[in-house]
Amino acid sequence: MYKQECIAMLLAGGQGTRLGILTRKLAKPAVPFGGKYRIIDFTLSNCSNSGIYTVGVLTQYQPLILNSYIGIGSHWDLDKKRGGVTVLPPYVRHDGGHWYLGTANAVYQNIEFVDQYDPEYVLILSGDHIYKMDYSLMLDYHKEKAADATIAVIEVPWEETHRFGIMNTNLDNAIVEFQEKPREAKNNLASMGVYVFNWQLLRKILIEDEMDKSSDHDFGKNLIPRLLEEGKRIYAYPFRHYWKDVGTIESLWQANMDLLHDQPELDLYEKDWKIYSVNPNQPVQFIAPNAQVKKSLVNEGCQIYGSVENSVLFPGVVVGEGSVIKDSVIMSDTVIGKNVTIERAIIGEECTVEDDCIIGQPGEGQEEITVLGENVVTVKAKNIPGGVEINIENCHEFGCCPNGLTKQEVIS
Amino acid sequence: MYKQECIAMLLAGGQGTRLGILTRKLAKPAVPFGGKYRIIDFTLSNCSNSGIYTVGVLTQYQPLILNSYIGIGSHWDLDKKRGGVTVLPPYVRHDGGHWYLGTANAVYQNIEFVDQYDPEYVLILSGDHIYKMDYSLMLDYHKEKAADATIAVIEVPWEETHRFGIMNTNLDNAIVEFQEKPREAKNNLASMGVYVFNWQLLRKILIEDEMDKSSDHDFGKNLIPRLLEEGKRIYAYPFRHYWKDVGTIESLWQANMDLLHDQPELDLYEKDWKIYSVNPNQPVQFIAPNAQVKKSLVNEGCQIYGSVENSVLFPGVVVGEGSVIKDSVIMSDTVIGKNVTIERAIIGEECTVEDDCIIGQPGEGQEEITVLGENVVTVKAKNIPGGVEINIENCHEFGCCPNGLTKQEVIS
Amino acid sequence: MMRDVMGIINDTDIEHKLKDLTRVRSTAAVPFGGRYRIIDFVLSNMANAGIKNIGILTQSYNRSLLDHVDSGKEWDLLSKRDGLFILPPIFRYDQFTGNLGDVDHYYNHMDYFTRSRQQYVLISSSNVVYNMDFRDIQQCYEEKQADIVLVYKNAVTEENNNFRVLSLLIDNNGRIRDMAASREKKLSPAVALEIAFMKKSLFMQIIDDCIARGYRDFTKDGLIKNLEKYRIFGCEHQGFAAKIDSIHTYYRHSMGLLNPEVWKELFFRHGSIYTKVKDEPPVKYQASAMVSNSLLANGCHIAGTVENSILGRGVTVHPGAVVRDSIIMQKGQIHRGAVVENAILDKDVVITPGKQIRGEKEYPLVVEKQAVI
Amino acid sequence: MMRDVMGIINDTDIEHKLKDLTRVRSTAAVPFGGRYRIIDFVLSNMANAGIKNIGILTQSYNRSLLDHVDSGKEWDLLSKRDGLFILPPIFRYDQFTGNLGDVDHYYNHMDYFTRSRQQYVLISSSNVVYNMDFRDIQQCYEEKQADIVLVYKNAVTEENNNFRVLSLLIDNNGRIRDMAASREKKLSPAVALEIAFMKKSLFMQIIDDCIARGYRDFTKDGLIKNLEKYRIFGCEHQGFAAKIDSIHTYYRHSMGLLNPEVWKELFFRHGSIYTKVKDEPPVKYQASAMVSNSLLANGCHIAGTVENSILGRGVTVHPGAVVRDSIIMQKGQIHRGAVVENAILDKDVVITPGKQIRGEKEYPLVVEKQAVI
């Protein structure tokens, strides 16, 4: 193999349990977002745009879609003869097999993979966040500070500090204390889960941490405190642009809505920092004579006969005449009939919403997002109350199962 | 996904323990063979040449090299928009993770993958064998016999029947009895581990077998007997060409030697049935003025100043002046100094054999193959007795460790 | 599937019928339908029918086309044995005599035809927009025991009346009895779509016969003169098919896509139409956007008014701008207050604030690539 | 790495110096060293130096070259932003005036140069075989604060005396004071290798100046006439470099590879030389094979005698056949009892049993592609 100055290890094994039915058959990084992307597209595109062309993707939970989506990375310009993308599932050695037990353990189990490239630096990334960041600038900062490790941080509202790992820094941005999800935070600088390490140091710490039977083998919980204890130079790298952990249905919905302002904080149209994705083959979208589309993102293959407002439509969505889609996210190839109303909802792939349905009934004081999982079918004139989640396991309760199937058949 | 008539599931998780140090860091299907191939190249090329373009490769043991070798299958012309190669490691579901417990269980865990393509037939293959076979002819045979399952069989010498699964057939080739490694075989038709199944039947049997806690979840041991018990139509498909299970050092060596006849049984030069492989980038080979090369396969990047007879040389091997290589296999980028003698040996990748060494001392009545694992370095004028196996774990006993390393450093 | 058929697409025609649109590219590479190029249709039809070996005879000036089809990956034509082959004109400019007919182009690539393993050829020109199951042609060939099959369409409208069309006289059995390339007089409503199917050996023999006699035109010399000698049959294409042979037909057929029936037939009927994909974000509609009866490719940014129009990738319509009955190709920018009506804007055209350009429906205004107005 | 440099390879030269070898392909696409094409060397040098955007100006007749370089994947040039671009001559044969110099070719692709993001250009002809670290050129450019850097080699031998070479007169500071393309009279032993490095803006300005004055030759009109105006410096390449400009130099430099020092320098010195890989099995030596001092590409099958020769992919030498001091390209077949000496056999040549062909070392015999003797 060839020596590389810096390689990235991308943690993409997360189950994302708080995304409920959306991550039932899908790892969180593979969840669709923003009309044509999957969440992991942002991190992979950041790597490609930052000139980090060697990326190991650590997968474990429901990796089939993720694996075939990533392939050899050609969609992100990461199919290189030297390096490129390598998917790293857990595996069996001659002394047996071990699942990844924590973020640090996952990297520990792939020390040999990293060693192949003999890098100076390793970038640890997560596939769960929506943001645009030039990692090469962070690497420069790490070198400039002569740091042992650098952690990207972002200011979060003080009232949310208890959800994050909080960094207390001195004037030079050196981290003096780390609080994991503190009740009383001394600071509002939260870790973004983006780290640069000197590889030889990280390698040593990973091996030590592995020996420690009491450790959870987690970067934030175990490795960073251990490094601080040892008095290593750890710096905070302040990041001041859009960053979102889409860990819940509400935040996933909100992050989609964030894109719809006339001047959104996260600009998908920037020519020099493209977000790459696997492009489906669909014809251009058709907006019918009486359609209305405003404040929305609409994709190829869509046919809009009704009204779409403040919504995100993935490729191949059909919106029938007289239907009104508002404040919603509609995933690929879903067909919506005539005179349907959908409000504050996330509709999964390949659903069918027949004529005259109302989804997320407005005006009933429902604040929660309504979610339909993939392949759900609502019969004509069905009312789906706001805030419910329907998938193939509970669809029979709502009469929303795919063509004539009973619960038993659907699940098997 | 798109419907496919037939897809292949290729079992590539085997550890190949009897190949000793050669499979220490490598799954058996990834073991180098024939000067530029890996064992799995034969099965993948067979798929491509047979028009089977959708292949799931089930990996579990040390898959890193195999995964990056296979990539998206472009080297075997298997990178298709519809189908193509998918590597299928074990994974974690929302109810937990399970390693593959047997060949049948591995396929069971990937029923969803197969269902995506809704195939009529599934071809079960192993990545462990060297042979050229047109699976489409076997599929035609399966249809013609209206069989529920078809098993490819080959005649083996009677004295070896105890090592194989033996099929007893009637005149029409229907299998009436199956003996797994019998002490007294009634027949010498051995299963090649190549099966065609009707998918709906296999799917049902896999689920039933999974429920059976006493089962080893193995195709040969459990599934075939179960099908026979149920009175299903199982046919033997006789195969009459070269086929070799390279399960031991001896058989791996022998299979390499088989290629060196002027008219070998297995022809690598057939234009219409190419064996594809990942091609390294090396210049053309150089045969020096006083070199001698006979009855051998030699690859790009080799520089031959000495004598090579009845041997297989992988790319980038250097043979110094006055050296004699006989009846041996030398893997990639190994450098052999001057006046070295190597006989009946397999030398791993990137070894260094310094001047005046003798490996596999001839004439001492040694019948066993001598094996050097990868990166072994023999100092000047070293004698390596025939039949030993040297790798980085025992190299210090023979004074053959990479540059100045002690045992401790080598292993860590 | 048609694995035993090789596809040949002839894009060597250099007449100026598409005016400014073919000044910088060949007919095959002219953008169509927002994100396609004209060649995508015949290429996708071939790929969808299972043809694995396709040769494109190009003009010298083929940079746009090369860039567009690349290695053929988008049509799943990457292959170790077959695949997509670019066949440029073979001559050296120091030896060029100024005269090349399509027969010469075919003849110069005889080695490619010889080397290919397929037994049949499907030859097509590069300028027809349609979605057809090409397997029907081979079926027709076998049913009629034909030597050659030509695809035709019964043209009921008055189209093409300014240009030569190849009209056919077909007997009750489907055999073609007469053919003529004429401007006004038509033999029947049957118009050939310039697709021929035959054995490769017969094709090579016809080319050889033409060369031996100094003939240069495959249709006139190779087919029309041989109507007696070979059994030439017609195979009717019943769906939508548009030959793009003038600015007028280009504009009219583009606008035809705004009929959802045509749009669906063309893009979904027998198989998908593939094209080179690009990394463009979704179309962004701002609060002030007013869009109706239009087709928009990804990457567009709409804040103004768009009616009855087709917008290519990455077009920006600023607030207060109006686009009506027009075709705007890739990356066009229509600034605040500008008005575009009945126009075809080639790639990268900028209409500065307040400017108004208007053509007539029957005579759309064409603005050349990269113009700033 | 040279990310801010775009590479330009000029393969538009159509002189007949390589005779039959360039009858069916351009110079860039002539096979060399068993499995390479001549262009592989400059292309690999560029790729190894980190250049990510490379344009190849081709002749009209570029099928072999297109097939060889394909999408640039072998040189790791597949890229979303940059990559490998084929730039065919831009003219239509109905408008062709019969006159094209290299300046015209550059001028016709001005849009490509404009669009590219790089600040510098490295321009090279397609016919030099060498392994050079191109980063040295940029270093020289910076050290000397040059406007233009040309690479040269001090030629001690009598080579090239039949052909024009571009000799240089260089002052003590490395600045080029005179240049002349002459057959016999040389200004000094310094011979230009036809590689120039400069700012893209300067390159475009020189082209524009030439076009404005009707000049056609980049070297003579763009460089020689501007020796006073611009600071043009030389950068010496000290290793092996062979300009392939005649059958004689082709044969001599090919045979030079049999010197292991040259072979190692050329293929391993600064980086690997990449080429299109093919799926060929190893070379098979039968019991009767006698091979010495030769280079063999994979897929060869040797049962006879091979001495001092270079064999391309898939060559078969049958028992009793003898190949001496010859170059046999891809898939040549030398049958039982045949003898080949001092010859260059193009691809797919068959020498039938017992036939003998012999040239002279100073005048090797060239057998054209697919000949059966």
UniProtKB/TrEMBL annotation, chains A, B:
Provide the site residues for: Could play a key role in the communication between the regulatory and the substrate sites: 60, 99
Assigned keywords, A-Z: ATP-binding, Carbohydrate metabolism, Glycogen biosynthesis, Glycogen metabolism, Nucleotide-binding, Nucleotidyltransferase, Transferase
User: So where does alpha-D-glucose 1-phosphate get bound?
Assistant: 100, 165, 180-181, 191
GO biological process per UniProt: glycogen biosynthetic process
Instruction: List the InterPro entries.
Output: ADP-Glc_PPase, ADP_Glu_pyroP_CS, GlgC_bac, GlmU/GlgC-like_hexapep, NTP_transferase_dom, Nucleotide-diphossugar_trans, Trimer_LpxA-like_sf
Where does the Nucleotidyl transferase domain start and stop, copy by copy? 8-260
Q: In which pathway does it act?
A: Glycan biosynthesis; glycogen biosynthesis
Q: What is its EC number?
A: 2.7.7.27
**What is this protein's function per UniProt?**
Involved in the biosynthesis of ADP-glucose, a building block required for the elongation reactions to produce glycogen. Catalyzes the reaction between ATP and alpha-D-glucose 1-phosphate (G1P) to produce pyrophosphate and ADP-Glc.
Give the matching NCBIfam families. Answer: glgC, PRK05293.1
Tell me the protein's name: Glucose-1-phosphate adenylyltransferase
UniProtKB/TrEMBL annotation, chains C, D:
Keyword list (alphabetical) reads: Glycogen biosynthesis, Nucleotidyltransferase, Transferase
GO BP terms in the entry:
glycogen biosynthetic process
Instruction: Please tell me whether the keyword Ribosomal protein is annotated for this protein.
Output: no
Residues annotated as domain Glucose-1-phosphate adenylyltransferase/Bifunctional protein GlmU-like C-terminal hexapeptide = 287-357
**Domain Nucleotidyl transferase: from-to ranges:** 17-167
**Coiled coil feature spans:** none
| MF terms (GO), sorted A to Z | glucose-1-phosphate adenylyltransferase activity
Q: Which domain of life is it from?
A: Bacteria
Tell me which family the UniProt entry assigns to this protein. Belongs to the bacterial/plant glucose-1-phosphate adenylyltransferase family.
User: Know the name of this protein?
Assistant: Glucose-1-phosphate adenylyltransferase
